[in-house]
Amino acid sequence: MNTSPRDMxxxxxxxxxxxxxxxxxxxxxxxxxxAYLTRSPHECTYAVIDGRIRKLLETEQETVLVEIGEGEDGxxxxxxxxxxxxxxxxxxxxxxxxxxxxxxxxxxxxxxYRMAESxxxxxxxxxDHFGLRLAGIPDLFEALxxxxxxxxxNLTFAYMLKKRLVETFGRSMTFAGKRxxxxxxxxxxxxxxxxxxxxxxxxxxxxxYMIGIARLMESGALSKEQLLAAAQPGANPPFKQRSSGCGRxxxxxxxxxxxx
Length: 260
What we know:
This protein is an alpha+beta fold. It has 11 helices and 9 strands. It folds into 2 domains: 19-128, DNA-3-methyladenine glycosylase AlkA, N-terminal domain (TATA-Binding Protein); 140-171 and 185-254, Hypothetical protein, domain 2 (Endonuclease III, domain 1). The chain has helices spanning 30-37, 89-102, 110-116, 123-128, 140-149, 155-169, 186-190, 194-198, 204-219, 224-230, 237-243; strands at 19-22, 47-49, 52-58, 63-70, 77-82, 171-175, 178-182, 250-251, 257-258.
C-alpha cells in the first residue's frame, strides 16, 4: 500500500467485538443525533456506515478507530473498537470522555423538557426532536477553525473548505478499504503559509486567522483549560471578555465547546 507521510498504518480487519456501553443523563435519541450529524455529505472527520458513526480519535498515547452505535439494554450509546482497542486504560478513558463530551451525554435535559413541554413556542419542537442533544466539538483548535471557516459563506461551501483543509494538512488511516481522517494539529497548521491556503480557495484573512490561532496554541498562549477557567465565576474579567469572542465557539460551565 502506498502511503503519504501523514498516513498511519492501515488495517482490513473488522473482527474486534469488544464494546463499551455509555449512558446519558436524561432523555437521549440516537436517531435525532444522527440526523444532525449527517446534515452534510461533505463531513470528513467521521463517516456514517450502516447507521453507525466511525471516527478516528487520537489520545496522548495512540490513535484508535471507533464505531459508535445505538446502545444496548437501556444504554444511550455503544462504542466498538475497530482495528484494535486502546493499549491502556488511560487511552480507553480518553476515548470515552471524548465521545461523552462530543455527543453531550452528561447534560441532564429533564428540567428543560419539563419547562418546554407546555411552552407555546418550544412545545412542538421538543416533541418533534425529543432526545436531541447539543453535539459539540471537544477539540478547541478544530472548534475555533470551524468558526473561522464558516464566516460569511454558506454551510455547503464551509464543509467543502473544511474537507480540503483536513485532506491537505491532516493525517489518515485506511481501514477495510476506507480512509479516515484526523483534524490537523495546531503545530501542523502553524508551519503553513497563507499561499498554501489560497490554493484551497481560502481567503487570505481566514488563512491568517487560523495560522495565528495555531501558533497561539502551539506556544501555549491559548488553551482549552484557560478558556474553561475563564468561564468560571470570579474569572479575570479582561481574559473572560476575550474568551467570549471566539466566533460561536465557547467554553461552557459544563466544559463543552460548541460551534454552529
